[in-house]
Amino acid sequence: MAVNLFPPENLLPVDGVRLSAVSAGIRYQGRDDLVLMELAEGSQCAAVFTKNAFCAAPVIVARDHLAVASPRYLLINSGNANAGTGEQGLQTAKATCVELAKLLDDCQAESVLPFSTGVIGEQLPLECFQNTLPSAIGALASDHWAQAAAGIMTTDTVAKAISRQVELDGGVVTITGVSKGSGMIHPNMATMLAYVATDAMAGQDTLQSLLTEVTNETFNCITVDGDTSTNDALILAATGQSGVPIAGANLVVFRQALQEVCLYLAQAIVRDGEGATKFISIDVEDAGSRDEARAVGETVALSPLVKTAMFASDPNWGRILAAIGRSPVENLDVSKVTVWLGDTLLVENGQPAASYTEEQGQQVMKRDEITVRISLGRGDTKASTWTCDFSYDYVKINAEYRS
Amino acid sequence: MAVNLFPPENLLPVDGVRLSAVSAGIRYQGRDDLVLMELAEGSQCAAVFTKNAFCAAPVIVARDHLAVASPRYLLINSGNANAGTGEQGLQTAKATCVELAKLLDDCQAESVLPFSTGVIGEQLPLECFQNTLPSAIGALASDHWAQAAAGIMTTDTVAKAISRQVELDGGVVTITGVSKGSGMIHPNMATMLAYVATDAMAGQDTLQSLLTEVTNETFNCITVDGDTSTNDALILAATGQSGVPIAGANLVVFRQALQEVCLYLAQAIVRDGEGATKFISIDVEDAGSRDEARAVGETVALSPLVKTAMFASDPNWGRILAAIGRSPVENLDVSKVTVWLGDTLLVENGQPAASYTEEQGQQVMKRDEITVRISLGRGDTKASTWTCDFSYDYVKINAEYRS
């Protein structure tokens, strides 16, 4: 029941990237749960990982491997997070890389980055990898992006992927990305995996700073339930196969396209949020700083009372005010706060707007995409936060996930 | 469906306090929704109010009145919060005090403290007060604590009240208190009202410091949904009618009894949390500071994933670890973290305990009172946080509250 999110179409291959998805029976039966992504030699990678102190085994291994070698293969399984699995889990994560490298010419284990998503606290069955890695290698092809997007899903109901092409000085470059995630979604990463590849050419430093900047305005601005995961990872790979460099004037154009891809992939996660029936944007304006705007946006977006009112299509704007009022903003002057629901003025200078009628509010709340706009009257900075509503199905999905 | 919470019994009158509860038809029909509490001349009051920047009109008026006069009457209505009601709401809150004072000899409007709880954003109907204040005054009696506890309820399902008597140097003193609250419950107050009275004798400074200390260990350690309200207030009144002073050795004994009363009233709110089926204690030990212990406790207590797992009686301890891992604690060393579910060791030194079995976890999770004990291995400070689980009924109650 994702909100205005549809299966990916017209995905474009990226020169230098081949993918495959196979059914390894790690947890799910009868669907792909193991994805392999091959990057041409000479590719550069940038990465962002979860900030959760209890990070999962594959995150530790991927970080270590990134520090010592250039990645050639990304090995991603769904169904089991290999988190909270202690020393044994760490050994298994390393072993999956070793197993893959053994099957390949000229690939060392450190050139493989492992990723896992799924249930926490169960050991990852290595034999599932041993049994299916040969067929995963055999199935590698450049037009398997849609299969990869489907293979990394857990509680997702719709696969998430998008392509963009932009004309740069030197030629056309392609960006294609996939993501997954539905619950445990919160800024600073979540049970969220995303892989974006381009055939543009860039050094690792350029890629990493681009990815960090763009992440702060996209993936770090979404929240479903405030829970961040042990496994989150976002990878940006540039194969350089187009020969078109990301530098000079190209940088601005490429950044914009990358931002569009990441925004789509991030918002897709919210649209497919566990139990979501509405897609909600909290736009905070006239803040003293971006942090302040984000803090207010996040407080409103995470309020269970706001989220249940959204689910009920109830313009219970008092809950929005109460959430703004408890946001961690020093000396908030409520007499300068103005709030709109869609285009309808709700609150003006901290007081209910004289023009507001309940009917206006209900008209907006009936929609499946709702924007709450909040002006703090403290400065000229703005930031958006995207979230979904809180429904019976959220509880159902999370109460029954393991059973 | 409150968790091990039963209607109050054996409430003791407090010399110098008379109460009444009447049906004013403010929102609810056929039940009391207006409570009047009279304090004998010479009583002292301490108060704690919401920190929400969008505080309600009665909170502003009560604060103002406390600054200029000694309170003689507390006037509390349920069904309408008089919050988000702008200048008109402020005038109405003041007018309710004026109306009451007009009906009394030797009482000025400033000696009345108004309190409201209920729906936000609707104007409070003054005529309901005008019509019923005479009968509220006529009904004042010292044995109406149970009626007062019932009259201040909103989504509460059980009235909350308790009495304690302690023998002090100089005689026996009584403490009786009532509270209400069910949703929008979070540290630093919530849609929570509590009124505690004693016939002990104390100056305002002593009372206020006692109340602040005790609040930090009781009312500020509960959370239902992370939302704090615009209306929270906690009042401690000492009538002094017993002639027994709270000073010297008496201070310690009185403080302990006050703490017990406040702990009961605070935990009662969690036990009656919206949709609650379980009462959960998060005990964080070996923290570097109390703030750190509270931060971890609150992060775990507020995690929708932990709360839905509790509802499902699912020992999905990975979610507890993930919540600890994202707590705002600098440089958390996960290899020093140990976690128990009840008496069952779950995680030892950051790794799943070898002795743990799923059956053990399920035994604990079946109970309706569950303790999660977390040792951080960073110091010797501890703190508890109390919360409830997250059920279908939480969503139902909050999605349908206004309809």
Automatic annotation (TrEMBL), chains A, B:
Q: In which pathway does it act?
A: Amino-acid biosynthesis; L-arginine biosynthesis; L-ornithine and N-acetyl-L-glutamate from L-glutamate and N(2)-acetyl-L-ornithine (cyclic): step 1/1; Amino-acid biosynthesis; L-arginine biosynthesis; N(2)-acetyl-L-ornithine from L-glutamate: step 1/4
Q: Which residues form the active site?
A: T191
The annotated site for Cleavage falls at A190, T191
Compartments in which it is found: Cytoplasm
Task: State the Gene Ontology BP annotations.
Answer: L-arginine biosynthetic process; ornithine biosynthetic process
Indicate the principal place this protein occupies in or around the cell.
cytoplasm
For this protein, what is the EC number? 2.3.1.35, 2.3.1.1
The record lists the catalysed reaction(s) as: N(2)-acetyl-L-ornithine + L-glutamate = N-acetyl-L-glutamate + L-ornithine; L-glutamate + acetyl-CoA = N-acetyl-L-glutamate + CoA + H(+)
Q: Which residues form a coiled coil?
A: none
Q: Where is this site: Involved in the stabilization of negative charge on the oxyanion by the formation of the oxyanion hole?
A: T117, G118
Per UniProt, the keywords (alphabetical) are: Acyltransferase, Amino-acid biosynthesis, Arginine biosynthesis, Autocatalytic cleavage, Cytoplasm, Multifunctional enzyme, Transferase
Is-annotated flag, keyword Transcription? Answer: no
Task: Show the GO MF annotations.
Answer: L-glutamate N-acetyltransferase activity; L-glutamate N-acetyltransferase activity, acting on acetyl-L-ornithine as donor
Annotated substrate binding lies at: T154, K180, T191, E274, N398, S403
Task: Report the Pfam families cross-referenced here.
Answer: ArgJ (PF01960)
Cellular compartments per GO CC: cytoplasm
Q: Which family does it belong to?
A: Belongs to the ArgJ family.
Under NCBIfam families, the record lists: ArgJ, PRK05388.1
- What does it do? Catalyzes two activities which are involved in the cyclic version of arginine biosynthesis: the synthesis of N-acetylglutamate from glutamate and acetyl-CoA as the acetyl donor, and of ornithine by transacetylation between N(2)-acetylornithine and glutamate.
Q: How does it assemble?
A: Heterotetramer of two alpha and two beta chains.
Please report the name of this protein according to its UniProt entry. Arginine biosynthesis bifunctional protein ArgJ
The UniProt gene name for this protein comes to argJ
